[in-house]
Design brief:
Distance between the termini: 77 Å
Strand content: 5-15%
Largest sheet: 4 strands, antiparallel
Bound molecules: cobalamin
Number of strands: 8
Number of domains: 2
Structural class: alpha+beta
Order of helices and strands: HHHHHEHHHHEHEHEEEHEEHHHHHHHH
Length: 381
């Protein structure tokens, strides 16, 4: 059935009177086609609850359903891009038309099952690295579990079309998660619920027409803690993140020379930043996350000078299966060089910086020179 037919049916006055659940049952039965006879005893009104139970069994902290429609957020994305807030993340501009149109990724998409997976590690001794990156790479884990959810459902109700995603396709995940009632978009632009914001998002576009959950109201109130806590003032106004100033962008997404005026503000952070979450009052209610995201031993009780000494092969081995590996050894050294420059003046920090002055990368050498200068070390005696 094409989308037009689907929507036409929904808009028939008779169907409206009967309500969404009826339309949904009817559509789903149509979709099941030949299976209808054998499964007609089934109560499909229980399907959303069943999807949620499957999600819970897979470890998701929340599951919600929304329509595959982006709405006003599409205009806001265009404004954000127009202001240049995406910096050098060209993929945000190039794929904007796909991001705002679920049917560009799955032609018959009419519903989205959105999922949240908590990641806060029980121990977080590596304060220089943002909490989401201390354990395993969420992209893979989220998608594996979402795939499992979809295939289990298919085995139970028959074939349907779907596509799973978690930061792996052009999708507006926060917008869809808030539509699906998983939380509200906070002033720091992240999805916040009553259990805080330490969760990954992902979802399933599907051609099953499922009844949507109701969005929940924002509970940010008059709080502006995240705006005030951002070390680089990247949250320029509520809901406005200028990625070009965000430490997460600078240390992860951005490949070049970090603007000198921002380097002192990065402090000792070497991968991402959590300040706009740590300060959020709702994160007082956060739960410990999934064991997959527990602190990996290689990052336990370590220090900037030790991390800076890792060879490329140490980097790849110690960070096997970690999202940090995506930035590569060169950007890793660039970031640690800045952190060493911002660290308290100690001989071990200076020696660490000097030990890599002959590194083949101009990018790394340039950042080391800046840091040694900041530490008061004269490079040209
Ligand atoms: C690009 C990106 C970034 C960029 C840009 C950030 C940004 N805010 O856009 C950078 C690299 C900086 C980044 C950083 C981080 N990211 Co990021 N990022 C993304 C990505 C890939 C796309 C986000 C996007 O669409 N941005 C475009 C702009 C237009 O969106 P926006 O800022 O949300 O803009 C909206 C608001 O301005 C809103 N708005 C405007 N006015 C108003 C007014 C009101 C009243 C309201 C309600 C809304 C509103 O409308 C806009 C459109 O919806 C998503 C994954 C995905 N595919 O969705 C992950 C994602 C958002 N990131 C995530 C994470 C974890 C982070 C970091 C915490 C990582 C870290 N520790 O370093 C930081 C947090 C920084 C921050 N405060 O945003 C998670 C967030 C999970 C959650 N609980 O929300 C996501 C969902 C990835 C995932 N699958 O889990 N990220």
């Amino acid at each position: 059935m094409d989308n037009q037919t689907r929507h036409n049916r929904q808009s028939q006055p008779g169907a409206k009177k009967l309500g969404r659940i009826f339309v949904w049952q009817w559509e789903l039965r149509g979709k099941l086609g030949g299976m209808q006879e054998t499964t007609s005893h089934r109560d499909y009104s229980k399907l959303p609850a069943h999807i949620k139970a499957l999600g819970q069994a897979l470890g998701f902290s929340a599951i919600g359903i929304c329509r595959a429609e982006i709405g006003e957020a599409a205009t806001r994305l265009q404004q954000w891009l127009h202001q240049g807030h995406h910096g050098k993340m060209d993929y945000m501009a190039c794929h904007a038309h796909l991001r705002t149109d679920p049917r560009a990724l799955l032609p018959d998409a009419c519903s989205v099952v959105m999922a949240a997976l908590d990641y806060l590690p029980a121990t977080a001794s590596a304060r220089e690295i943002s909490a989401y990156a201390l354990g395993r790479d969420y992209h893979k884990i989220m998608r594996q579990r979402l795939q499992k959810l979809a295939s289990t459902l298919q085995a139970e109700i028959g074939n349907f079309n779907y596509r799973v995603f978690s930061d792996s396709a052009p999708v507006m995940e926060v917008e869809l998660a808030q539509q699906a009632g998983l939380g509200w978009q906070g002033k720091n632009a992240l999805l916040i619920s009553r259990q805080g914001s330490w969760c990954f998002l992902g979802g399933i576009y599907t051609d099953l027409l499922l009844p949507p959950d109701a969005p929940i109201a924002s509970h940010c109130g008059s709080c502006t803690a995240c705006l005030k806590s951002c070390p680089t003032q990247a949250i320029t106004a509520p809901y406005q993140v200028d990625a070009r100033r965000c430490i997460s962008y600078l240390t992860i997404e951005f490949a070049g020379s970090i603007p000198q005026e921002l380097r002192p503000l990065i402090g000792q952070r070497i991968y991402g930043c959590d300040d706009c979450q740590k300060c959020c009052p709702w994160n007082r209610f956060a739960r410990i996350g999934d064991p997959a995201f527990a602190l990996r031993p290689a990052l336990e009780n370590t220090s900037l000078d030790k991390l800076f000494a890792w060879s490329e092969s140490d980097f790849n081995t110690n960070l096997e299966g970690s999202p940090i590996r995506r930035i590569g050894h060169e950007r890793w050294l660039r970031n640690i060089a800045i952190a060493l420059g911002n660290a308290p003046r100690q001989q071990k920090h200076i020696e660490a910086l000097q030990s890599r002055l002959d590194h083949p990368s101009t990018l790394v050498r340039e950042h080391i020179a800046w840091s040694l200068d900041r530490q008061g070390v004269n490079m040209n005696p």
